[in-house]
Specification:
This protein is α+β, with helices and mostly antiparallel strands. It folds into two domains: about 15-245, Beta Polymerase, domain 2; about 285-440, cca-adding enzyme, domain 2 (Orthogonal Bundle), CATH 1.10.3090. About 45% of the residues lie in helices and about 10% in strands. The chain has 22 helices and twelve strands. The protein has helices at about 15, 35-40, 50-60, 70-75, 90-95, 155-165, 185-190, 200-205, 210-220, 230-235, 245-255, 260-270, 275-280, 280-285, 295-310, 315-335, 345-360, 365-385, 390-395, 400-410, 415-430, 430-440, and strands spanning about 30-35, 65, 85, 100-105, 110-115, 120-125, 140, 150, 170-175, 180, 195, 225. The strands form three sheets. An eight-stranded mixed β-sheet has the order 1-10-9-2-3-6-5-4. A two-stranded antiparallel sheet has the order 7-8. A two-stranded parallel sheet has the order 11-12. The radius of gyration is 28 Å and the shape is elongated. The N and C termini lie far apart (about 110 Å). About 35% of the residues are buried.
Length: about 475
C-alpha cells in the first residue's frame, strides 16, 4: 500500500486499547481511480435495482455508487448476497426520491428502497465526529469505552472511507462510468486476499466490538489472511462483546453460522476467544467428544448446516441453537439423582434455565426459543417410542427437526443406533408396514385387565 494511505496493523498494547475515540485520527490523502481494464468488472453483474437507484440519484444531482461487500465480492468473482448504495443525499432526500422506501435504524440511519422484489440499502456518507461536541450533538454518540452508540454525522465520500472498517470494504464502484475509486489500497488487498483494518485496529474494535466477529466471518468465508497480531488483539479484546446489545449479537451469530462455513467459523471463534463471550456456558461444558471432527455432535450439526446451505436447502436458527446449547441442557438433566427416565417437565425446566441464561449474551427471540424447546422435548418422545403416540409424532410440525437432532445424537453415541434406524425406516414404510412396526413395539395393558375402582354408591333416598 502507498505510504501514508493507510495505518497498517500494529501489535496490540495496553495503551492502544485505552485510546479514546478523539485520538489517533486517520486521514486520507488521495484516491486512485481504477478503469474497467484494471478492475475487470462488468456492469451487467450488478442487479437492475441497484443500477436504477444509482441512476435516479444521479439524475437528481446527487453522488451515488456501490460500496462495501458487494464490490469486494464482485472483485472476488463471487455473487453478492445484496447490493449497498452510498450517496451524499441525506436519508430524508433519498426517501423523497423513492416513493417505495423507508428510513430505518437509530444507531445508523439508512434507507431501504424497494425495487421490484429487491430491497436495496442506501446509506449516506458518514463523516468523522472529530471537533464535534458529543454531549451537545444528537447525531453522534460514544460510550465511555469508545464504542459508537450513534453515528449520523453526514459528510463526503472522502470522509466516509475513514469510517469504514476494512480496506477491502472501502471500494466505491460507479456503475455509470464503470470505475472503482480506491482510497486505501483496498483493491490490492482484495487481490492478495488480505484483511486489513483502516486506521488503528484497537480503536476500531473499541468503536464497534462486532468487528471482531466480522474478522472471523470474512476469514472463514473468503479464506482471507489475518495478521496473527490482529488475532491476539481479538483474544485480548473479546470481553468488549459484553457491551454489545444481545439483540444485535443474535443477528451477528446468524450471519456467522449461516454463511455456509459454520464449522470454520466455530473453530475460529474458539481460537480467538470469542465463542466463550457469545456462549459462555456452552463453552465451559463442551467436552472432547462434542467437538470431535468424526463423531462430535456440535461439529456434525454444523457440518449438516453447511451441507444444507450448499445444497440450497433451508436452515432454521432454532436447530443451530439447539445444537450449540444441548450439552448445557443434558448436563442439567444428568445431575438429577433420580434413576427414572427424564420427564417432559424436567426437560422443560432445564431448557428454561439454559435459555434464560443464554439470552443475557445473545438474545434468542421467543419465536425461535420455542422451537428449540420443541426439538429438545421431542427427544424424550422419540426415544420412548410409545405406540399410541407414533402417528401423532410423525405428523408433528417439528418432527423433521427433532428427527434430525436425534440422528446427530445417535452419531455421537448418545442414542442407540437401533432407535434412530427405527425412525428412519418408519418414514419409508407403507401403511401396512407402519402398523406392523408399531405393533412390534408392544402395547400397554388393555384397560379391561386393569382393576377398576368400585364406584361409590349414592345413598338411597327414603321413599316418600
Amino acid at each position: 500500500m502507498g505510504s501514508g494511505a493507510v495505518h497498517r496493523f500494529k501489535a496490540p498494547s495496553t495503551t492502544s486499547l485505552k485510546a479514546s475515540h478523539s485520538s489517533d485520527t486517520f486521514k486520507v490523502s488521495s484516491s486512485r481511480t481504477l478503469s474497467p481494464a484494471e478492475h475487470g468488472l462488468q456492469v451487467s453483474s450488478v442487479s437492475k435495482g441497484a443500477r436504477k437507484i444509482i441512476e435516479e440519484l444521479k439524475s437528481k444531482g446527487f453522488q451515488a455508487e456501490l460500496v462495501g461487500g458487494c464490490v469486494r465480492d464482485l472483485l472476488l468473482n463471487k455473487t453478492p448476497k445484496d447490493f449497498d448504495v452510498a450517496t451524499d443525499a441525506t436519508p430524508e432526500q433519498v426517501r423523497h426520491v423513492f416513493a417505495r422506501s423507508r428510513i430505518i435504524g437509530r444507531r445508523f440511519r439508512i434507507v431501504h428502497v424497494r425495487m421490484g422484489r429487491e430491497i436495496i440499502e442506501v446509506s449516506t456518507y458518514r463523516a468523522s465526529s472529530e471537533g464535534i461536541d458529543l454531549e451537545a450533538d444528537d447525531d453522534s454518540s460514544y460510550s465511555a469505552s469508545g464504542r459508537i452508540l450513534r453515528d449520523n454525522v453526514f459528510g463526503t465520500r472522502d470522509q466516509d472511507v475513514v469510517r469504514r472498517d476494512f480496506t477491502i470494504n472501502a471500494l466505491y464502484y460507479d456503475t455509470e462510468s464503470n470505475t472503482v475509486t480506491d482510497y486505501v489500497d483496498g483493491f490490492s488487498d482484495v487481490k492478495k486476499q488480505v484483511l486489513e483494518f483502516i486506521g488503528d485496529p484497537a480503536r476500531r474494535i473499541e468503536e464497534d466490538p462486532v468487528r471482531m466477529l466480522r474478522i472471523v466471518r470474512f476469514k472463514s468465508k473468503l479464506d482471507l489472511f489475518v495478521d496473527p497480531a490482529c488475532e491476539v488483539l481479538c483474544r485480548e479484546s473479546a470481553y468488549l462483546l459484553r457491551q454489545v446489545p444481545p439483540a444485535r449479537l443474535f443477528d451477528e451469530v446468524l450471519k456467522l453460522f449461516h454463511s455456509g462455513f459454520a464449522v470454520r467459523v466455530f473453530l475460529e471463534l474458539r481460537s480467538m476467544g470469542l465463542f466463550s463471550e457469545l456462549f459462555p456456558e456452552a463453552d465451559r461444558v463442551f467436552n472432547s467428544n462434542d467437538i470431535d471432527p468424526d463423531s462430535g455432535m456440535v461439529l456434525k450439526g454444523l457440518e449438516n448446516t453447511d451441507r444444507r446451505i450448499e445444497e440450497g436447502k433451508p436452515v432454521i436458527a432454532a436447530f443451530l441453537f439447539a445444537v450449540l446449547l444441548w450439552r448445557c441442557v443434558s448436563r442439567r438433566l444428568r445431575t438429577s439423582e433420580s434413576t427414572k427416565p427424564v420427564s417432559l417437565m424436567q426437560m422443560h425446566n432445564a431448557a428454561i434455565d439454559v435459555l434464560g441464561r443464554q439470552v443475557q449474551r445473545v438474545a434468542i427471540p421467543r419465536r425461535i426459543s420455542t422451537v428449540v424447546m420443541d426439538i429438545w422435548g421431542m427427544q424424550i418422545r422419540l426415544e420412548a417410542r410409545r405406540p399410541r403416540t407414533i402417528k401423532r409424532l410423525l405428523e408433528h410440525k417439528r418432527f423433521r427437526a427433532g428427527y434430525d437432532f436425534l440422528l446427530l445424537r445417535s452419531q455421537a453415541g448418545e442414542v442407540k443406533a437401533e432407535i434412530a434406524d427405527w425412525w428412519t425406516n418408519i418414514q419409508e414404510a407403507n401403511d401396512e408396514q407402519t402398523i406392523l412396526m408399531i405393533q412390534a413395539l408392544g402395547s400397554p395393558k388393555s384397560q379391561s385387565n386393569r382393576r377398576r375402582r368400585p364406584r361409590k354408591r349414592q345413598p338411597r333416598r327414603p321413599s316418600e
